[in-house]
UniProtKB/TrEMBL annotation:
This is Two component transcriptional regulator, LuxR family. Keywords: DNA-binding, Phosphoprotein. InterPro entries: CheY-like_superfamily, NreC/VraR/RcsB-like_REC, Sig_transdc_resp-reg_C-effctor, Sig_transdc_resp-reg_receiver, Tscrpt_reg_LuxR_C, WalR-like. It comes from the Bacteria. Residues 4-120 form the Response regulatory domain. CDD domains: LuxR_C_like, REC_NarL-like.
Length: 211
């Protein structure tokens, strides 16, 4: 049975090249192509492809935000990221969100088909040199990352680490749950993480190093 694949990239020439490559590959059906992240999210929702190949950085909605939504809504699609470059923090966040594949654009034409075949079998395509960046990022001094937070973001983060719910945090700081959620979104983005557990781990490590 053919793998149903969606491709999203805001570079028209690359998008056309990938569409032509996959369209000529046995075992793959290209069910949609788009240069818009917002449109890609809608196509994933409506077409339910098995695999979505997404540009990490698109002007309207990037691949990371799409992957978060896919995970939150439980859509059964495996996500492969394409990017010109990926920092250790980006790789770490993608891995924490369950990305199925990582590809640099320079090598996409040569390796994408093999990547999709592996991902289609339920495997992950994670080049060792990219995973090594994530390991290095995770080993960095957490204090440096936490120093980028505003006083309010740090206050909210500390309450998260004490086990407070968003509702309890809102009551404690005199805010609303919606505002707390926005602050936490900014915290996650700055720290390159995606969960309360990881946030708590960073704070515990930082406190241990201060003792």
């Amino acid at each position: 049975m053919n793998q149903r694949v969606l491709v999203a990239d805001d570079h028209p020439l690359l998008l056309r090249g990938l569409e032509d490559l996959l369209g000529a590959t046995p075992g793959i059906d290209v069910v949609g192509v788009t240069g818009s992240g917002v449109r890609a999210l809608g196509l994933i929702r409506d077409l339910r492809p098995e695999i979505a190949v997404l540009d990490l950085m698109m002007p309207d909605l990037g691949g990371m935000a799409i992957l978060r939504t896919v995970q939150e809504r439980g859509w059964p699609v495996r996500v492969v990221f394409l990017s010109a470059t990926m920092s250790g923090r980006q790789v770490a966040e993608a891995l924490s969100l369950g990305v199925s594949g990582l590809l640099l654009k320079d090598f996409a034409a040569e390796t994408l088909v093999n990547c999709l075949r592996e991902v289609g079998k339920g495997e992950r395509w994670l080049p060792e040199e990219m995973v090594a960046r994530a390991r290095q990022e995770r080993g960095n001094d957490p204090g440096r990352a936490l120093a980028t937070l505003t006083p309010r973001e740090r206050e909210i983060s500390e309450l998260v680490c004490r086990g407070y719910s968003n509702k309890a945090i809102a009551a404690a700081v005199g805010s609303t749950e919606g505002t707390v959620s926005i602050h936490l979104h900014h915290v996650y983005r700055k720290l390159g993480i995606s969960s309360r557990t990881t946030l708590a781990t960073l704070f515990v490590r930082h406190q241990a190093e201060q003792e």
